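Students often ask why we bother encoding 3D structure as a string. The short answer is that it lets us treat folding as translation between two languages. Here is a chain of 88 residues written in the first language.
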Amino acid sequence: MEQEITLEYFNLSTEQANATMFLPPDAARACKVEKLAELGITVTDNQTPLQAWIFAMCRANNLPETLPALAIGDAANELCPRWVWFLA
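And here it is in the second language, the structure alphabet:
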């Protein structure tokens, strides 16, 4: 039986998802870290914002915190591709 995956994310428009593309890297990271904080997710210095979100979603779904997290990736591709683009 396949596990139902629950994801926490913001439903972003294409413009919102692309907003950080033109920022300097430190400013883009800060924007992403701030958005994740709104979901209660902390990004450590050795993580990218996308990694922090994936690991948080693994914990929320009682999955091992490993990369690649295929179940999370499959659900994210279906439910929130712009969110993943924003975090990448």
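Translate back mentally: The mean pLDDT is 93. Keep this in mind for the problem set.
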